[in-house]
Amino acid sequence: MAGLRVRSLLVTGANRGIGLGLVQHFLKMPNPPQWVFAGCRDPKGQRAKELQNLASKHPNLVIVPLEVASPVSIKVAATTVREHVGGSGLNLLINNAGIAKITLLENETPEDMTETYTTNTVGPLLMGQAFLPLLKKAAQGSPGSGLSCSKAAIVNMSSIGGSITNPYAWEMIQASSYRCSKAALNMLTKCQSLAYKEHGIFCVALHPGWVQTDMGSSAGHTPPVTVDDSVTGMLKVLSSLSEKDTGTFLDWEGKVVPW
Ligand code: NDP
Questions:
Q1: Which of 16, 43, 59, 175 has a CA positioned 20 to 30 A from the CA of residue 223?
Q2: Which is a Pfam family this sequence falls into (predicted)?
Q3: pLDDT tens digits, residue range 170-213?
């Protein structure tokens, strides 16, 4: 992982699942970041216990109250992060928080469609907007030309379920609202890559594999990939990416996923 060296990063939905795994892996790096911001919508709650334990041992871990469906919460979180990092900005924003409604197409409701889109798609849009000044600062302050995840980047946690070419496991799980929200997140990633390139910010959509988390297991099947393997794979992939890869859709093993 020698290639991935960030001074600061923020992970949304960091209290469990893949988000927590990402935080744990960054803290264990030989050269850990100066700041690891863990977004969590209920920092004092029961579901944040592991994060609280980690924070008591790692002074560079800051738990940031963050509800990605709330524009106000996002703005407050951006202010909190700015107060910590000062002029050096934020290198890496990982939009990981997400929800899935395991429902048949015939049972999808306007409420489920809207809630899923608000969390999985609008959240990452607003996060990108709110943290843009900090990402720009990080890009300006990093030596070297070309885009990379070490310099300044937005990583959107997508899903192969949002692939239109290969709508993975449809027979097993329909979850149309989820698929639509991730297909839209992929388009958002492309838009962000086009708009933010001139600011030196790399953008990518990542499929983490089918992973052993609450969400991964929610349809009653056991996923094949552990959180550890998924996160190890994704960090290796992120460390290897360069300017030519901005705006792409990749999986945890570095393979291109069809849109
Ligand atoms: P989990 O359900 O295990 O965890 C989801 C995380 O997101 C929790 O920390 C949860 O917080 C947080 N979250 C949900 N809604 C919000 C919100 N509105 N504001 C802030 N935080 C929120 O999911 P995974 O770890 O499995 O998934 C992480 C990402 O990976 C998701 O984007 C998912 O779509 C994607 N993914 C996962 C796959 C898998 O197999 N697991 C496959 C493909 C993609 P809280 O504890 O408060 O609910």
A1: 43
A2: adh_short
A3: 999 999 999 999 999 999 999 999 999 999 999 999 999 999 99
Residue with tokens 């960030």: 6
Phi-psi region of 181 (alpha: psi -120 to 50; beta: other; left: phi over 0): alpha
Alpha carbons 188 and 13: distance in angstroms, whole number: 19
Q: Is residue 1 part of a domain?
A: no
Nearest residue CA, atom 33 of ligand 1?
98
- Burial bucket for residue 113 (CB in 10 Å: 0-12, 13-18, 19+): middle
DSSP 8-state class, residue 29: S
Instruction: Show the tokens assigned to 122.
Output: 């609008």
What are the tens digits of pLDDT across the range 17-43? 999 999 999 999 999 999 999 999 999
Considering the chain, what percentage of its residues have pLDDT values greater than 90? 95
Instruction: Evaluate whether 177 touches 116 at the Cβ level (below 8 Å).
Output: yes
Q: Domain of 80: which CATH number?
A: 3.40.50.720
189: Cβ below 6 Å to ligand 1? no
| 60 within a domain of the structure (yes/no) | yes
* Domain-embedded: residue 77: yes
Backbone angles phi, psi at 229, to 5 degrees: -65, -40
Residue 256 domain-assigned (yes or no):
no
Q: What is the pLDDT of residues 120-147, one digit of tens each?
A: 999 999 999 999 999 999 999 987 889 9
Gap from CA of 144 to ligand 1 centroid (Å):
34
Decide whether any atom of ligand 1 lies within 6 Å of the 137 Cβ. Answer: no
* Ligand 1 centre distance from Cα of residue 96 (Å): 6
Cβ atoms of 10 and 94 within 8 Å: the answer is yes
Instruction: Provide the domain limits for residue 19.
Output: 8-251
Residue of 202, 201, 205 lying closest to 189 (CA atoms): 205
- For the chain, what is the domain count? 1
